[in-house]
């Protein structure tokens, strides 16, 4: 078996970065939204980017390229279109113009709200949540998937369409508005499977030999009902006669109890993750007797991080797998959507450090090298193995990765360092006396619009067209405008607007020792929103204050409190590429200690309110419940370590957004923040109800303004959400704020939206006073 399994091992990938080397897709889409780019021009840009991706993969030696993974906005939204699950409120727009209707589902319009958005498992990628109900009628619409397959085949590529699998699609869905909350979308499986059957038939007719069905939801803890549904789904799809060969893929963790279900299913292959937590798939696969006669795609190259692969270790894993399947091919652990495009574009990275990095292009070369070694033997890649060993040794012995002073400070942390000096109830009394805020105080989450002028100023500074003094003058002018606007609008707790920050993580990473920042390392977060996650390369320390200057300047312009704004340690990890050579808990502690210095300096400079954002607390939660307790213990401790050095009357805020919070409510309490703001507008205040049910005792700001849509909510709309929030949270503990920061929005919509938000707060305050008086 091992000889045939190794014969002609193929190299493949599940997906590739969509944006292009210079974010051409982002620019074309945003140009289309603004009317500067026509639909045909947008489609042509997309076509050229798809073809460039396939050509790049084929030139690297990838034997089988993916199709269908390319998307204008989100692959889950593409799946909703493929199965005809278009919400009623968007149907007319979609039928009138499929492209505009598609973007209406993603972003909303002034007339209709978009689909809810949340995190794709424990990544920082956001997907559009399908809305389903008992009346949902599925209809096959595989034009995108079929056309892209034909396009790749016509160019001479061996291609494999990649689809979100039916079980994962239904498990990601939520009840549509008006549908009872206890409705289970998985009950629609028998209605959905015939549509998948039709899609598979159409893909076969278009030339597909294999189709990949992604089922990452099965790596999570699943009840027998879900496992039975998965068995039924792949029994029925496998029994089809008019279909391509089926490859069921999972990633991000071990399949666990779902592995024997899929191993027994009448499908021709499985794709499994053998990196990180997925490494357990190796023993699990042996325990179920392997996949005799079937294809196994072994994800041995980490598709979510940027470090070079340990080729020798991967070859050993692949050698073991040869005896467990009829055929073994090689791939990254998941789609390369989650890493930047090309490490060679980073001209400013130290030459030695650059040898440690592998972005999407480099990972394809690693996969090809491993496939060759598997086919021809390790001797055929001896030079690559030797160079790889040298690079790994260079990293492990570098002074960048080990700072004795940082490690000694981390080892000296005591339990008391991670706890405030007084309990919340006593702190709250002191804070209310110090701040003197009205009921339902208004604030924003931190950032204000990042205008073209601000981006130009940063570019001018980098290019030397202006000096530091000229740049600082531009930033101060923006802060003055932001403070003036907030005062005139009537916002109670102000922010300086963060005009100096390129990104909420990168800004800090560029000022902390041990971090590396990239110039071209763009990764899609959602839609046309791309970020450049910095790289946690070594031990972390703070050479000097990072935010005090700008916060102090803003505070000097007003008598109202101005929040100091920081990004928390867990989010600094989650939105970076983390070290894989030490436990995450140790890295988090190092970052927390650096941020603690900043918090204390802000307080010493006069800040009475300090916000430490942790939007990634939930998304970094391990996918298996057995791993939750250990993670939440170090994650909440690192937040408290950051914030517990301040006086009782200094109010600590935190912020979270676009995640499911129900299963981490105890952890939210364990943060011991005085005020937490959360996304709530798209989910209709669901989180406020969850916090109330859990007995959360602190102050809460559930968002009443969805900033991920261009819609401007009316004052009455915001007031309606606020009243719903009051059903769960008493007025003395309820804040009024947007869902998230405003950097991606434009000033005209921000002005009107925040004016409406303040008007809503005033109106509801009056209602409360009237009710109290009567």
The termini sit apart by: 83 Å
| Class by alpha and beta content | alpha/beta
3D shape: globular
Share of helix among residues?
A: 40-55%
* Biggest sheet record: 7 strands, parallel
**Unreliable stretches, pLDDT < 50, 5 or more residues?**
none
Radius of gyration over all CA atoms, rounded: 26 Å
pLDDT averaged over residues: 95
Number of strands: 20
Number of helices: 29
> What percent strand?
5-15%
Order of strands in the sheet with the most strands? 1-5-7-8-9-10-11
Short description:
The protein is α/β, with parallel strands linked by helices.
Structure description:
- The chain has 774 residues and is of the alpha/beta class.
- It is built from 29 helices and 20 strands.
- β9 (269-273), α12 and β10 form a beta-alpha-beta unit.
- α2 packs antiparallel against α3, α17 packs across α24 and α19 (452-463) packs antiparallel against α20.
- The mean pLDDT is 95.
